[in-house]
Amino acid sequence: MQSPLPLVRLLFRVCVRLGLGLVLLVGLCVVVAGVSLHAYAASSATLTVTDCSGENGPGQIGTVLSSASAGDTITFSCSGTIPITSPLSITKNLTLDGSGQSVTLDGGNNTQVLFVNGGVSFTLKALTIAHGIAGAGGASSGNGGGLDNEGGTVTISTSTFANNSTIGGPGGGLYTNGGTVTISNSTFSGNSNNGGGPGGGLYNDSGGTVTISNSTFSGNTAQDSGGGLFSSGGTVTISNSTFSGNSAPSEGGGLYNQDSTVNITTSTFSSNSAPQSGGGLFNQGGTVSISNSTFANNSTGDLGGGLFSNARTVSISNSTFANNSALQGGGLSTFATVNISASTFANNSASQGGGLDNEGGTVNIGGSIVANNPGGNCSNNGPITSTGYNLESGPDCGFTSTGDQQNTDPKLDPNGLQNNGGPTQTIALQQDSPAIDVIPTSSNLCSVTDQRGNSRPDDNESSCDMGAYESNYVSLSLNGTNVNATEGSRFTGAVASGTYSGSGTLSASIDWGDGASPSTGTVNQSGSSFTVSGSHTYAEEGNYTINVSVSDGQGQSTSTTSPATVSDAALTLTHFVAGRLGHRWAGVAATFTDADPAGTVSDYTATITWGDGTTSTVKVYKNPFGKSFVLAGVHRYAKKGKYTVTLTVTDQGGSTLSKTTTITVK
């Protein structure tokens, strides 16, 4: 198609020659020219690969690629493994999108699969790049068996790089030379260097920028260093990703960093190996930051099973190093500066320095746990300086700063690394761990969250836990209270008290112990303290056991017992009369009430002591005209005189009333 640019120029020339006075015509010319320019700029298109059986026939990937213009997107209407016989060169801005299909671009272990020129933007989506090889006769370069990026901007998503390799060159899966590579939701597995070469999965060279997220690098091998990834200068950012089972015959099984800035967050480095040093990661002169990540089961035959640093600075926060192994420094070994905060080093092993090995660098550590590392928690050939609130299961780290605990069992979960929530595995603290709630927020050693992303401190407390894991055990305790009540009278008051550290809503049930149905208690909470109150009427005096149960509605509950002493209701004398009835005869009559509304005549015993050595038991009757009880008694004295007479009424529950008077007998 002829370019519209000569037509646009012609239109402008016509407008100018017609003169500035022809305003309307000039305006029309400008509009037409603008429309033409706009049409010229909008040139991108979507092309489709319709035949996945080969590379260079009609509708095949090579043919479609050669006909594409800058900015085009190439999609696929077929699925299959496309044999690539020569590198697919990306010389202009393009997108290869295999969404909706299952497409593999396969180099057949004969040729490199993709080659990206400098200055080009290339997007690879939903495709598999396999069996590419660089350094063989059919490669554009000796680097990057799957893809060689020579300074372009490459974006890879939902794709797989598998079993690609180089012969003597770097970057078995991918090589980038000073460009930018962004990888998301993708997998690099089984890529390798053969005949020598670093970066089995990926090699970042000449200050390139690599960003990896939500991706997996597994089973990649290098014939030099950096089984999973090798970076020389530039920046590498890794998040929410896993580097597992990668290996190198020398250093940096998972990752080798040479003079780069490496940031690792919410990621896992596991089961990587390198016989010389740095099973998980080797840092040679770069700056490494590790946060909210786990290094586990990495190994080396020399220094730094989890990590080795030879120069510059490594910072580790909210991370777990567990089950790594080495000759020295099972968890970590360093000749450089390492700053550690809010992290856990546990169950690593080495002949020397199972947890931390400082070979002459500087290690600063605070708010962390170093425990249960065979070969010693620390090996100090250089200073290991505590910034406070560290816990060590032995004495060899020399933690003696504020809040430090030595020779202390941290009570870690005996199951070790587990999925305790969050993107990476952690080691939980048992409920009785001495590492719980010991670091005051004022110390500036409490990070905002723990490794899992849970808040520190938990439940708005004023102190956080040591190590990478912030426990959130709900503390619910309950203690009984002595209860004193009176039969027949309604008791209202506290029956238990306790403390609660959770965020649920407390509810209580009270079994009063007398056979009555349990009632709902009232919970009054102030801060972490609370009381349980209730109301109840006991029908009879006696000793009872109250059972109080409390729950928080979130799975936490507890119970206790409270002793209740119920006293007999009081007896009250309402009327009393005593006097002489006749010749040496006297009489006593009285009425009384019982505060217990359930009292019956059989509950009471009434006696009259007549003062002459004689005592009479009189019968008690229910007053037919009220709620009181009545009694009366008479006595004949042997001789005249003045006598002291006493009436005593006793309830079988123990309450008594007594009245004494004087009678003169004639």
Task: Specify the number of helices.
Answer: 3
Q: What structural class do you assign from the helix and strand content?
A: mainly beta
Question: What oligomerization state is this entry in?
Answer: single chain
Please identify, by name, the CATH architecture of the domain at 571-665: Sandwich
Overview of the molecule:
The N and C termini lie far apart (152 Å). Among the domains are: 5-41; 476-567, Sandwich (Immunoglobulin-like); 571-665, Immunoglobulins (Immunoglobulin-like), CATH 2.60.40.10. It contains 3 helices and 64 strands. It is elongated and about 150 Å long. The model is unreliable at 1-42 (pLDDT under 50). The strands form 10 sheets. The chain has a 14-stranded parallel beta sheet, with helices on one face. Strands 3-6-9-13-17-21-24-27-31-35-39-43-46 form a 13-stranded parallel beta sheet, with no helix packed on it. The chain is mainly beta and 666 residues long.
Descriptive labels:
13-stranded parallel sheet; elongated; 3 helices; Immunoglobulin-like; 14-stranded parallel sheet; mainly beta; 45% strand; disordered N terminus
Brief sketch in words of this structure:
By secondary structure, the chain is mainly beta. The protein is built from three helices and 64 strands.
Show the helix and strand layout:
Blueprint: H1 5-17, H2 23-41, E1 46-49, H3 61-67, E2 72-76, E3 80-83, E4 88-90, E5 94-97, E6 103-106, E7 114-116, E8 121-125, E9 128-130, E10 133-134, E11 147-149, E12 153-157, E13 160-162, E14 165-167, E15 174-177, E16 180-184, E17 187-189, E18 192-194, E19 202-205, E20 209-213, E21 216-218, E22 229-232, E23 235-239, E24 242-244, E25 255-258, E26 261-265, E27 268-270, E28 273-274, E29 281-284, E30 287-291, E31 294-296, E32 299-300, E33 307-309, E34 313-317, E35 320-322, E36 325-328, E37 332-334, E38 337-341, E39 344-346, E40 349-352, E41 356-358, E42 362-366, E43 369-371, E44 378-380, E45 384-386, E46 391-392, E47 439-440, E48 463-464, E49 476-480, E50 483-486, E51 490-500, E52 507-511, E53 519-526, E54 529-537, E55 542-551, E56 557-567, E57 571-582, E58 585-594, E59 604-609, E60 615-618, E61 620-622, E62 629-636, E63 641-651, E64 656-665
Parallel strand pairs: 1-2, 2-5, 3-6, 4-7, 5-8, 6-9, 7-11, 8-12, 9-13, 10-14, 11-15, 12-16, 13-17, 14-18, 15-19, 16-20, 17-21, 19-22, 20-23, 21-24, 22-25, 23-26, 24-27, 25-29, 26-30, 27-31, 28-32, 29-33, 30-34, 31-35, 33-37, 34-38, 35-39, 36-40, 37-41, 38-42, 39-43, 41-44, 42-45, 43-46, ...
Antiparallel strand pairs: 47-48, 49-51, 51-54, 52-53, 52-55, 53-54, 55-56, 57-58, 58-62, 59-60, 59-63, 61-62, 63-64
